[in-house]
Amino acid sequence: MVPHLHMAIGRKKTGRTHVITARSSFTAQIAIAIAMALVPASAANAAHEPEADRLIKKAADALEVKAEQSTYRMTIKRAGDEKTRVMDVWFERKGDDEARALLKIKEPPNLRGTALLTTQEKGEKAKQWLYLPAYKKARRIRRGTEEEPFLGSDFSIGDLSVDQAELYSFSKSSDGPCGDPAPGAECHVLEGKPEPGVDPDELTYSRKRMYLRKDTGLHLRSEFFGKDGKLRKVMTVHGLKRSPKGHWEAEKLRMEDFSRRSVTEITFDKREVGKVPPRHYFTVENLEK
């Protein structure tokens, strides 16, 4: 979710610990849309072990913004071919349990108007809708579409899904080298495994692994393992630096899919942090008009 690609992060209490919830990660750590991916969807609503929970909360706090209106650029590289998608992103968070995000494609022309809306209202579960101009109708994103690529990229619908995020919980497994993009740094390594009782058929991955840098607490890398147990995807966060307003931003989010032999990179053309979008943007009616 880039150049802050924050997954839109919020917090709620579950039992004795704070659980980080995807709001829309960069997202994000996509969540939830690509706009939410710096702390990925895999770090969402499940009840993490206390130490992992603390580390995820620290990473979320470092990226926190309350509102933004930005333009992201997605570049898909596969078999010598390169495709670009340009999208406008609007995001707003209120308090610890209310947030909304809208991602809308403006290039290329054949995808213009395609949109992803995520809302988290107080006291309710997060909801997502995908709008396809050809059908002139928004459809609620539900389980069963997890393996579909999002806009032909290396992010799947499952990578950006609130429902998928709730199926995994994290625990701290070790400390070790961060690897790319910071090979000289040390990271806390968190392992994400399916919640007990989850049907394997509902899962996009058999497990996930997250690397959080020890000195800054920032999320640098996530690994996604297929149902066969083999490493399938790696997401890395590049060019992290502090903004004048104090939060951290990234220059690029990179997702590599080894099974497809392709790479998707997300950068940004424009970013306006603190600019609150009009409330009506975050409605299904706005998607369909």
Descriptive account of the structure:
By secondary structure, the chain is mainly beta. The chain has a single domain (9-288), classed as Lipoprotein localisation LolA/LolB/LppX (outer membrane lipoprotein receptor (LolB), chain A, Clam). The chain contains 3 helices and 17 strands. A 13-stranded antiparallel sheet has the order 8-7-6-5-4-3-17-16-13-12-11-10-9. The chain has a two-stranded antiparallel sheet with strand order 1-2. The longest helix has 14 residues, at 50-63. It is globular. The two termini are 26 Å apart.
Question: How are the SSEs placed, and which strands pair?
Answer:
Layout: E1 9-14, E2 17-22, H1 50-63, E3 67-78, E4 81-94, E5 98-107, E6 115-120, E7 127-132, E8 137-140, H2 162-165, E9 168-177, E10 186-194, E11 207-213, E12 219-225, E13 231-238, E14 241-242, E15 248-249, E16 252-257, E17 262-273, H3 284-288
Antiparallel strand pairs: 1-2, 3-4, 3-17, 4-5, 5-6, 6-7, 7-8, 9-10, 10-11, 11-12, 12-13, 13-16, 14-15, 16-17
Which short descriptors sum up this protein?
single chain, 289 residues, mainly beta, outer membrane lipoprotein receptor (LolB), chain A, two-stranded antiparallel sheet, 44% strand
Would you summarize the structure shown here?
This protein has 289 residues and is mainly beta.
Q: In CATH terms, what is the architecture?
A: Clam
**N-to-C span:** 26 Å
Task: Give unreliable regions as ranges.
Answer: 1-46
Please state roughly what percent of the residues sit in beta strands, choosing from under 5%, 5-15%, 15-25%, 25-35%, 35-45% or over 45%: 35-45%
Query: Total number of helical segments?
Result: 3
Look at the structure and name the CATH superfamily. Lipoprotein localisation LolA/LolB/LppX
CATH topology: outer membrane lipoprotein receptor (LolB), chain A
Average pLDDT metric: 77
Q: In sequence order, what are the helices and strands, one letter per element?
A: EEHEEEEEEHEEEEEEEEEH
Give the oligomer, counting copies of the same chain as homo and different chains as hetero.
single chain
Trace the largest sheet across and list its strands.
8-7-6-5-4-3-17-16-13-12-11-10-9
**SS-derived structural category:** mainly beta
User: Helical residue percent?
Assistant: under 10%
Total domain count: 1
Largest sheet: 13 strands, antiparallel
Shape: globular
Q: From the alpha carbons, calculate the radius of gyration and give it in angstroms.
A: 17 Å
Count the E strands.
17
Q: Which CATH class is shown?
A: Mainly Beta
